[in-house]
Amino acid sequence: GLLDPYRLRIVAARVLAADRMHHGAPFGDTARWLRREHELSASDAIGVAERAYRGGGVARDVGYLVGWLRVRGALERGETNVDDLRAGLATSFGQFPGTDSQGAELFQQMASAAGFDGTSAFAPESYDAAALIMLAMAKSGSTDSKVWATAVFDVANAPGEPIQPGELGKALELIAAGQDIDYVGASAVELIGPGESAGNYREVEFKDGKIVTVKFR
I need a surface site. Which of 12, 13, 57, 84 has the fewest CB within 10 A? Predict the structure, then answer.
């Protein structure tokens, strides 16, 4: 009951768009296909396609609909606990933000040494966001967000000296010396468009009752 017909239609369209993206269909072709074959409005077709293609495809959009259908089916059958759902989980999959980069490994080592769970949701991304703000302030020489916001791309992307987690002091020294930096960080930072992340995520599946990594995308 939480998904009205329009919302369910959009979620289903995202599944179709993500599938086409992963099979190599161009962005424009997918948007036109959604408009023509599934009669989405022009704005909805473009929005759905944009979401699927941004950052290399959004795997969670496939998982959302499948998961919703499984939960609805389980409730209809009166299944209310994990043991009841175990058979369905055996073929489930999903995604977490993450990357198998050198920076990700370094961040996990830093997190363990500091006594916190570096694998928790968005921990690496939170670290990188704070680092980028600090470095942009140093680059622009200002704490005014309207000023330092214009310097985020200057410190986040190439060209420049790559900066890994734990190297913020080094980055500040390079900025002070007038040298360019390329902040890689814990999540392999690469900014695109208006300043959003190009996107990295870990595809997972359930196997023998455990979450197992399929691949990094």
Answer: 84
- Cβ–Cβ < 8 Å for 184, 174: no
Residue reference for tokens 């370094």: 106
**Considering only CA atoms, which of 157, 151, 154 is closest in space to residue 185?**
157
Tens digits of residue pLDDT in 140-164: 999 999 999 999 999 999 999 999 9
How many CB atoms sit inside 10 A of residue 82's CB?
Answer: 9
pLDDT at 203 (0 to 100): 79
54-73 pLDDT per residue, tens: 755 555 666 667 777 777 77
Q: How many other C-beta atoms are found inside a 10 Å radius of the C-beta of residue 4? A: 8
* DSSP code string of the chain: --S-HHHHHHHHHHHHHHHHHHTT--HHHHHHHHHHHS---HHHHHHHHHHHHTTS--THHHHHHHHHHHHHHHHHTT--SHHHHHHHHTT-EEEEE---SHHHHHHHHHHHHHTS-TTSTTHHHHHHHHHHHHHHHHHHT---HHHHGGGHHHHHSSSSEEE-TT-HHHHHHHHHTT--EEE-TTTT--EETTTEE---EEEEEEETTEEEEEEE-
The tokens for 101 are 């980069």
Query: Do 151 and 140 touch, CB atoms closer than 8 A?
Result: yes
